[in-house]
Amino acid sequence: MGYAKVLSVGLAGVAGHLVEVEADLAPGLPAVIISGLPDTALHEARDRVRAAIVNSGQKWPNRRITLNLLPATLPKYGSAFDLAIALAVLAGSGELPPVALDATVVLGELGLDGTVRPVRGTLPMVAAAARAGHTRVVVPAGNAAEAAVIPGVRVHAVDTLHRLVAHVRDGSPLLAPPAHVPVGGPAGPDLVDVAGQPLGRRALEIAAAGGHHLALLGPPGAGKTMLAERLPSILPELDDEAALEVTGLHSIAGLLPPGGGLLRRPPFQAPHHSATVPALVGGGSGLARPGAVSLAHRGVLFLDEAPEFGKGALEALRQPLESGRVRVARTRGATEYPARTQLVLAANPCPCAKPSGDVDCECPPLARRRYLGRLSGPLLDRVDVQVQLTAVRAAELLNTGAAPESSATVAARVVAARHAAAERWAATGHRVNADVPGPYLRRPPWHLPARVTTDLRRRLDTGSLSARGYDRVLRLAWTIADLDGQDRPGRDDVAEAVQLRTGEVA
To answer: What are the residue boundaries of the AAA+ ATPase domain, all occurrences included (predicted)?
Structure first.
C-alpha cells in the first residue's frame, strides 16, 4: 500500500490540537524524513521508533519513509507522537491493517526496547481528542488514570509496542485504566495553629471569601508565613471545570501525583526568592512551560520575603494578576496559560528585620524606603488587602484557654460568602467579588449611595486612592458584607475595607 495515517494530538500551551501522522513508504534509498515543523525531540524519533519496532519483533521497512504531521503550520513538540509514528510506519509497510486504527487517537513515547512511556500533558490532549469527536484513545499505562477522567472517552492503556501491535492485528486485549480516584489530599496546615493575630486572620478570611490578593507586612515571627500557608485550607474545593484546568496544567508540567486523578484542592506555590522571570510566569526554550503563577491557577501563589525577588520577576506578575492569563511569545508562536491565582506577599518592614519591629530597627530611613520600594506602586495597587502585623505577645502565644477557630469553621463562612457572591454576579459570568469589573460596581443596580462612599470619594479626589484602588475597596466591601450575611455593604463595611486596603482608619 505504501501510505497510512494515524491520529495523535499536539499541545500549544494548554490547548490540544488534533494531529494527523502520515507515513508514505516509497522505493528508493532507505531514509526517514519528518516534516510538519518538528522540534529536536521529534527529529530524534526516527531512531527511537526504528529501535522500538525491531526490538518488538517487527520488521523495519528498508524504504524511503516520509513522515508528515498535519497541520504542517502548527509547531510540534515532544515525544508523544512516537507511538503514532510507529503504527503509521507498520501500517504503511503492510504489517498492520490500517482500518483498525481509524478514529483512534494514539499517544505515547517509545523506549528503545519497545516499552511505551508516559508523556506530559495527556489530560489536555485527551480532552482535545474528545472535543474533536474522537472517543477512543490509546495512552501509556502510566497516563491512563488521568486520561480516564475525561467523560465520554474510552481509554485503552498500553505498556509495550508489542502488545499494541498484537491488539491491532488480532484484537488481543489492551490494559484497562485504573479506577478514577479524585486526588483530594489533606487540606494542609490548620488555622488553629496560629496564635493571636486577629487582624491577620480576618484579612485571610476576607481574601479567601472574595478571591482578593493579600500583602502581609510585619516583623519576623509575626506569623506571616503561617497565615499564608493556611490560606488553601479555607478555600473551597475546586469544581469540575476548575479541577480539569488545574489538573491539565500540572499534567503539562509533569507534576501530577501518583494516581493521576483530578486535583480537587486549590494548589499552593511558594517559589524561592531567587526564582527567575520564566520560573514565575513561564518560559524556557522551545515549548514554553507553565510558571509558578500558572501552576497556582485557582489556588495561591505565595512570595515569601517578597522584596528579595528580582524587580523584573515581580513586575512580570502585574499583567497576569490583572488579566488572569499569561502569554509567552516565542519566534515560532505564542503560548498562553491560565493564571487566575491569589497572590500573597509577605515582607519584613526593613532589611535588619528585628523581631521587635521598629523599636530596635538599625536601618537608616533611606534603607527602609529602598527595601519596601522594591515592591512597586503599580504591583501593590493590584493587591486588595494590605495589613501590618505586629509581633505576637506572650499572652497570645502561651494562651491555654479556648482554642482559636479551625480552618473548617472559617471555611464554612467562606463557602457561604462565595455562594452569595456567585448568585449575585451570575448574570455577569463572574463568581468572586475580586473578578467583577469596576464599572459593574459603579452603575445601577450595584452602585452604593453617596452617604456610604463619602470617604472613598474624598480619597479619590485627593489622590490617596487610585481609580483602581477605589474599585478594589468596593470589591472588599462587598466581600465583607457577604461574610456578614448582608445584602449590600454599609458605611462600616466600606470603612473596614479602606482600613484593610490602606492601613488607615476611615
So the answer is: 210-393
Report the domain count for the chain. 2
Residues 126 and 161: beta-carbon distance below 8 Å? no
Based on the fold, state whether residues 254 and 384 are members of the same structural domain.
Answer: yes
Q: pLDDT tens across 49-79, in order?
A: 999 999 999 999 999 999 999 999 888 988 9
Residue type, 392: V
pLDDT of amino acid 220: 87
Length, in residues, of the chain: 506
d(CA 294, CA 378): 21
- Phi (first) and psi of residue 405, to 5 degrees: -60, 140
The rounded radius of gyration (Å) of the Cα atoms in the chain is 27
Start-to-end CA span in the chain (Å): 81
Final residue before a domain boundary, out of 355, 372, 405: 405
Residue 475 cell numbers, joined: 470589591
Residue pair 182/261 in contact by the 8 Å Cβ criterion: yes
Domain boundaries, position 387: 191-405
User: What are the φ/ψ torsions at residue 420 (nearest 5 degrees)?
Assistant: -65, -40
Alpha-carbon gap, residue 304 to 224, rounded angstroms:
9
184 found inside a domain: no
Residue in the structure block whose three cell numbers are 494530538: 9
Report pLDDT for 485. 94
Type of residue numbered 228: A
Residue 395 has which C-alpha cell? 499572652
> CB–CB of 382/322 below 8 Å?
yes
**491-502 and 450-462 are packed helices; what angle lies between their axes, rounded to 10 degrees?**
30
Residue 467 and residue 381 in contact, taking contact as beta carbons nearer than 8 Å: no
